[in-house]
Amino acid sequence: MICRSKLAVMISAVAVSAMFVACNDRAEEKAQSKAQPAAETAAQPAVSKSVVVYFSQTGTTKKLAGVMKQAVNADEIELKLVTPYPSTYDSTIAVVGAQRESKQWPALENAKLDLAKYDTVYLGYPIMFGSFAPPIYSFLDSNDLSGKVVVPFCTYGSGGRKASAAELKTLEPNANVTLAMGVSNKRMTRDDGDSIAKVEVETFLANLAAGKTDEMLMGGYSEQRPLTAEDSAVFVAATKDYAYLNLTPLSVSTQVVAGMNYLFLCEMKAFGGAAVQTNVKVFKPLPGRGEPELIVVEK
Length: 299
Ligand SMILES: Cc1cc2nc3c(=O)[nH]c(=O)nc-3n(C[C@H](O)[C@H](O)[C@H](O)COP(=O)(O)O)c2cc1C
What we know:
By secondary structure, the chain is α/β, with parallel strands linked by helices. The chain has helices spanning 4-16, 21-35, 38-43, 60-72, 89-102, 134-142, 161-171, 185-188, 193-209, 214-217, 229-239; strands at residues 50-54, 75-78, 120-128, 131-132, 149-156, 176-177, 181-184, 247-257, 259-268, 276-284, 293-297.
């Protein structure tokens, strides 16, 4: 994690950086609009070499995809199921569970896409059963991503960003799968979800342009130490809606930002399963600016 002031510097650096091809469209556009009168710029729209391809069942990933599209000046394609998932959570769990069990991936209305003109595919999905939603397998089965930059982004209940990106790398060994981004459903659907999404996307693109890895993003925290009563109170407040994960914090490290980032090393027995250790990221805003919130369970 990096502090917000550093991020602001990095974000402005993205606009002038040519380091990452996917961010170039926007930087070029900005540079052009400075150098040319508006009418001329409008007469010569840039041809996008990036596309945002996404699946969304209930609209959360769709919202994030819209923000991503704006930020990188990409085309956008929504993957549509021939037979949509049921409208209730429990029924969807049953259908998706059966699809995963049988590896029978659902038919898409638009399975085969014309991706030849794109060098970068921003691939968005909800996390389902710990990795990307089944329609993404259908998309991967029908399209060749070899040689393309693939930028994964997701929304989730508690996490799955890393595991889904790792699976994508395995399934697409000839694509350049980059650092992945993710935002929790809870944060995306807050009243200020749009601005949260914008900040998350800008931060992510800056990290991507700077060549940051997940390991580098975990830097800047203090050493892990035993919890104080205050740390425990922060943990309880942030995880009160995640009882099903059965999280027990073992130790914590912190990072001062505009507020405080916490990295709790926890024992997790999700849905009463076997105990595993995991990192739980929590953000506590400055006093008077809201309650501590769970950012992600790293998995
Ligand atoms: C069938 C199903 C399985 C899910 N599995 C997970 C999961 O394993 N981990 C998780 O963090 N969230 C999980 N979720 C929550 C979704 O990832 C989350 O609600 C997401 O924001 C939905 O995105 P959408 O609105 O674009 O469909 C699951 C949701 C459904 C419906």
